[in-house]
Design brief:
The chain is of the alpha+beta class and about 375 residues long. It is built from 8 helices and 20 strands. Strands 11-12-13-10-4-14 form a 6-stranded mixed sheet. Strands 15-18-17-16-19-20 form a 6-stranded antiparallel barrel. It has a 5-stranded antiparallel sheet with strand order 6-7-8-5-9, covered by helices on one side. Helix 2 (about 40-50) packs across helix 7. It is globular. It starts with 9 loop residues before the first strand and ends in a 10-residue tail after the last strand.
Length: about 375
């Protein structure tokens, strides 16, 4: 008997473009994605100093609409999308009955009863199935357009100036966590002022086959400003500096929002029941047994995912993400530790290649953009 053949990887509409640019492609969340082009450091610095262009078409795009769409999503998610005004967005989560995080999401309100839910690539199918089940009793329908939508992002201090030359959307009035419909490079699109880098930037949703046109327009307009194509490697170092969690590292089914320091997302005061409410209410009463913290490594070494963390009081934790910060010039990490060990200024020890290395608990984000 032979093993079952592996599922073929999805490819975005821009994959040939990535190959032509010399990208190194890897598997990520069931997709073949560029991890780097010219190099992670160059790409990271381009985003911090100028602008970077990302293909995010592996993300899940789930449209929910109908007379009961707002109520349906309020019952399905921990946040309350009904509170959004049209054109605004909120960070949210979909949790299981036990309060564990199934995925973290962004919810955009496109109309009175029309919403766009963006899920992580590796969880898109799971979230689609869960939402379909959870909204079944409401007057709402889910249209999963994950494989019909291209998503191209431009991020960095020059992003607005570059995009402004290509779009009829008034970017000056488009606030952070807002979305508007318009044209980008002659292509009908949804333009959102959101991102995962800690910089100002935009995410452009368009029909699958038009993604390469949007990318080409942004790349051409951004060339004079020094914009670079960027892969998942730079995206990871950028989001870590910005203190943004990654599903599968900081967030998973065994973690609740309060442990991750994201209890603000949970709206226990909203009317009506929602999946996970009882468990999350219990977590607020009983407290948490671990908490996510930021670390700067003060000794020699880099704290990597999975490395043990120890305190002088005997507490044990684990690093969830770590890197040498290109912007700050020092090693940074996120880790789960005992709540008593989680106050800024606490000195802990990370086990790096069987050696104990000192690390200090610090407030996040590690990096905040000027004026941000």
């Amino acid at each position: 008997m032979t093993e079952a053949a592996a599922e073929p990887l999805h490819e975005t509409a821009l994959v040939d473009l990535h190959r032509s640019l010399g990208a190194r492609l890897i598997e990520f969340g069931g997709w073949l994605m560029p991890v780097q082009y010219s190099g992670i450091l160059d790409e990271h610095r381009a985003v911090r100093q100028r602008a970077g262009l990302f293909d995010l078409s592996h993300m899940g795009e789930l449209f929910v609409e109908g007379p009961g769409a707002g109520d349906a999503l309020a019952a399905a998610l921990v946040s309350d999308p009904r509170k959004l005004t049209i054109g605004r967005a909120q960070y949210s989560m979909i949790c299981a009955d036990d309060g564990g995080i199934v995925d973290d999401l962004i919810v955009y309100r496109l109309g009175v009863e029309r919403f766009l839910v963006v899920a992580n690539a590796g969880n898109a199918a799971v979230v689609s199935d869960a939402l379909t089940e959870r909204i079944a009793g409401w007057d709402a329908l889910l249209d999963d357009r994950s494989l019909a939508t291209s998503l191209v992002a431009i991020q960095g201090p020059a992003a607005a100036a570059i995009l402004a030359t290509l779009t009829d959307v008034d970017l000056r009035s488009l606030r952070y966590y807002a979305i508007a419909e318009g044209m980008v490079g002659g292509v009908p699109s949804l333009v959102a002022r959101t991102g995962y880098t800690g910089e100002d930037g935009f995410e452009v949703f368009t029909d699958w086959g038009r993604g390469p046109e949007v990318w080409a327009a942004l790349a051409s307009a951004g060339s004079a400003a020094g914009a670079l194509p960027c892969g998942l490697g730079a995206r990871d170092t950028l989001r870590l500096e910005a203190g943004m969690p990654l599903y599968g590292n900081e967030l998973d089914r065994g973690t609740n929002p309060y442990e991750a320091g994201l209890g603000r997302v949970v709206k226990l005061e909203k009317p009506g029941d929602f999946v996970g409410r009882e468990a999350l209410e219990r977590a607020t009463r009983e407290g948490i047994s671990r908490r996510l913290v930021g670390l700067t490594v003060t000794g020699r070494g880099i704290a990597r995912h999975g490395y043990p963390v120890r305190s002088h009081a005997g507490g044990i934790g684990v690093v969830t993400s770590g890197t040498q910060s290109p912007t700050l010039g020092r090693a940074i990490a996120m880790a789960y530790v005992n709540p008593a060990d989680g106050e800024p200024g606490t000195i802990l020890e990370v086990e790096v290649r069987d050696q104990g290395v000192a690390a200090e608990v610090v407030a996040m984000p590690f990096y905040r953009r000027p004026g941000g």
